[in-house]
Amino acid sequence: MLFNSGDFLLFFPVVVLVYFVIPQRVKYLWLLGASYYFYMSWNPRYAVLILFSTVTTWAGALAISAVGRKFDGNGKTLKKWCVAGCIVLNLGILFAFKYYGFAAANLEGLLGLFHISVKMPVFDVLLPVGISFYTFQALGYVFDVYRGEITAEKNFLRYALFLSFFPQLVAGPIERSKNLMSQIYEPHSFDLQRVKDGLLLMCWGFFQKVVIADRIAILVTEVYDNFTVYSGLQIFLATVLFAFQIYCDFGGYSDIAVGAARVMGFSLTKNFKSPYYAVTVSEFWRNWHISLTTWFRDYVYIPLGGNRCGRLKKYRNLLLTFAVSGLWHGAGWNYVIWGGLNGLYQVAGDLTRPFRVRCQKRLHVRTDCGSYHLFQGIVTFMLVDFAWFFFRAGDVKAAIQMIRHGLANIGILSLFSPSTLSGINTMNLPEKDFFVMLGSLIVLMLVDYWKRQKVDLKGILMRQNIWFRWLVWYGLIFAVLIFGVYGPEYDASAFIYFQF
Q1: Whose C-alpha in 93, 314, 366, 383 is 20 to 30 A from the C-alpha of 86?
Q2: What are the sequence ranges of the domains in the chain?
Q3: Catalytically active residues, by annotation
């Protein structure tokens, strides 16, 4: 059940209405049932997998807690075995569904280099939607219990809701038990202002998805699927636009998820903070997919030693963390390269910092002015966007072929050609849709800029006359309805991160 589907537009109001009518003591049971129905709408068999993850991590956390009590807080070895069991069972399921084919193909290729012919069994299975997200959320809960940061949840059904809460189930944010679990126990009554805030955020998320992301997807898909007929300039344009496609697609989903949860009284983690205004790659990652970035920081990077173990080991930890993050996104070397590039940028930035500082001093470059920050932002975007190229390409071979073709056919002169717009039309996106996309991107970047400047957009809106507030409301709604990518030839597209 996609957020941008008619089914969800019927499902969500019913869930909310019943949620606020029924007694407080059974609200969590209603949400649990609704969440499983939501997840099973893709495939009823998926419920077995999330239930398995729920049972193993719930029991594992209780076992960790019991060992701690029995041995007066000691028994570290036994607790580690409990954690290891949860990791093996849950990552084992994730490996079987997501990484087995990738691992088998690479093993066959590696053995083939030594003239050893091995044919691995083939399992044609569909990747369960959201499995990477709820697996990491479940393991994060186990790690927190092991560290003593939270107590193990005894109520199985409440824990099951924590892991399956439908707004963030299939594509995050990856919630921490310290945030979401406690809210399941809190009473939530109907609050008109909170509901309006949540619906407004949901509407903004739909705007990002169906007006911007799905429109850009038409152009990007056309160019990436048929790159040999396009110039380097057009490939470059498509890659730049993909950066905004994935941002609006995933950021739109996150806003819908956070808004839907807010309607019911829950506060989810903010997943994006104007990432494309970042002036360094490290700042970009502090503001992009925040729930995953902090998960890898707390459960991978810091346990490896973080930045407390010397420069070389810090770089190793950083590169390893980003490579694993890339692999989390997809079973392919192009994802590993994408993650590794983002790690390598940060290592290179740290290594060259003394040299850059000396150059700035000798050249008397001011670093506290807007022009310098603009230059930093452009460089950061170019680096991040180049990495997105590998993310979007089907595989490493396709990425290399596209780079070679683009460099060989750069077509710089077409920038000054009056036929440039006709070139855009040939990329399967009509001219009127191109200008709708461009105008929408301007709106997006203005909103992100104001957010970065900590402008209270909601507060400003609420201080306006009621007619103006309703004008903004209806303007956003009609923008989604009128400019959203709909029609007989349009199939409501899944959010990009559903495949992860």
Answers
A1: 314
A2: 6-190, 194-272+429-500, 291-416
A3: 329
